[in-house]
Amino acid sequence: MSLENLEPIVSLAKRRGFIFQSSEIYGGLSSCYDYGPLGVELKNNVKRAWWKAMVQERNDVVGLDAAILMHPKTWEASGHIAGFTDPLVDCKDCKKRWRADHLLEAKGIKPDFRPCEWDKHNVVCPDCGGDLTDVRKFNLMFKTFMGALEDNTSQIYLRPETCQGIYVNFLNVQQSMRKKIPFGVAQIGKAFRNEITPGNFTFRTREFEQMEQQYFIHPDQKKEVFEMWKKARMQWYLDFGMKKENLQFRQHKSDELAHYAAEAWDIEYNYPGMGFKELAGIHDRGNWDLSRHSEYSGQDLSYFDQEKNEKFIPHIVETSDGADRATLAFLIDAYEEIDARSGSDDAKHEKEYVLRLHKDLAPIKIAILPLSKKEPLQNLSNEIQNSLRGTWMTQHDETGSIGKRYRRQDEIGTPYCVTVDFDSLEDKKVTVRDRDTMEQERVDIGELKDYFNSKFYN
Ligand code: ATP
Questions:
Q1: How far is the CA of 116 from the centre of ligand 1 (A)?
Q2: Among 147, 145, 185, 189, which residue's Cα sits nearest to residue 168?
Q3: Quick check: helix, strand or coil at residue 267?
Q4: Pocket-testing residue among 85, 197, 210, ligand 1, by greatest number of atoms within 8 A of Cβ
């Protein structure tokens, strides 16, 4: 089943506590979102899975958590003050703002913003048909002020990408960890961009989270390393259950490369109603970043290879994934609307919703469902939950019919439900139900932990 648009996901996200509009009681803050109780679990699991694959399971990558606020010279060196802009046009009538490149692309025209070229295209406001202004460059960085004075000397920026925190710490990390090239530094953190046309739910927001890794290499290693990371990043999405047909690579054409990039590939996901759009990127950044930071800081950021007796400025292959875009893509990919598969004929339900999330990503791993709210079943189900909650995220649900409770758990992607019934008091067994197969098994309460260990870790 493929969705036509994001509406069912937006609705599920709100209904079941995954994602809410930010500041909703004040009418909402445009393109900012809050992760609810289940959303924060899902997103944390996505980040944990990324960290495990990128840091824990590798000897050549270490982690970092750099500050969001950085010395303003960072952004001069990185080229963001001069070049991190989008082409902006305003509608002279309705005052709405648009990305000029998106307007041209929508008409099948390759973006070109030389003034006379832009005029020639006769583009009008897509909303009201009004005339548009000339194209202006709009810097996407959020400005703020540090300290009590609001003047130019105290102006700083919220970082628009996390990787700069890695570059300025290159020597700190390399020396303290005695790392030899090639090695990588990984980081997860917030980034901020004053996007002109945000939208499509959490796909394009002004505050978002990146999962970035910078791999420092000798330029001779480039081809091999680039291929290694391209393969590894795509495989990661497949390993966590994303459907192959919803993923593709796209290489950036030379005229769309960012100012620092020599080669760039996107991993694209087929977002409903949007088509294939960027989920992650793999970039060859050359030695642009460390050269520029050497120049602007006056610190020598080169690396000395003792074996080869060679000094050079390392080149960088970057992998850049969006935690929010990945979380959204995992939600979409796992979402299924199916015709009633449970209940007796007269109790059939029109539609059931199942989130077939990978077990590692599911927000709740095990739901405990006692058939009665009263003692002694309550006591027993509390004991069972307490024996499992130290290892897995659990939820206790005691309201509604058992069928309703199964469907509630299916809808949030819980892989297993444990039903505690009156027989459990006698035979010390519970029924474990599988989300995907709906198969039910009687399992000894004393063996539940081993049972789930084999289910989750095999
Ligand atoms: P786009 O072309 O969609 O604007 P980008 O090329 O500017 O993206 P990068 O600078 O390569 O994106 O950022 C790396 C990753 O960060 C992206 O692949 C995406 O997952 C995420 N990302 C970038 N901008 C946003 C945003 N506004 N909202 C949510 N995630 C974002």
A1: 30
A2: 185
A3: strand
A4: 210
Residue 373 CB neighbours (<10 A): 10
Residues in the chain, total: 458
Annotated binding residue at 295?
A: no
Any atom of ligand 1 within 6 Å of the Cβ of 324? yes
The closest residue, in CA terms, to atom 25 on ligand 1 is 204
Q: What are the pLDDT digits (tens) for 217-248?
A: 999 999 999 999 999 999 999 999 999 999 99
| Superfamily the domain 7-70+142-332 falls into | Bira Bifunctional Protein; Domain 2 (3.30.930.10)
Fold of 364-457: Rossmann fold (3.40.50)
- Whole-number Å distance, alpha carbon 322 to ligand 1 midpoint, is 7
Nearest CA-CA partner of 339 in 357, 329, 327, 354: 354
Distance CA 136, CA 161 (A): 23
Average pLDDT, 10 consecutive residues per value, the chain (458 residues): 89 97 94 96 98 98 98 95 88 90 83 68 88 88 88 87 98 97 98 88 96 98 97 98 97 84 95 96 96 97 96 98 98 92 60 95 98 92 97 96 95 98 96 96 97 93
Residue % of the chain over a pLDDT of 70: 96
Element (H, E) at 455: helix 448-457
The whole-chain average pLDDT of the chain stands at 93
Q: How far is the CA of 233 from the centre of ligand 1 (A)?
A: 16
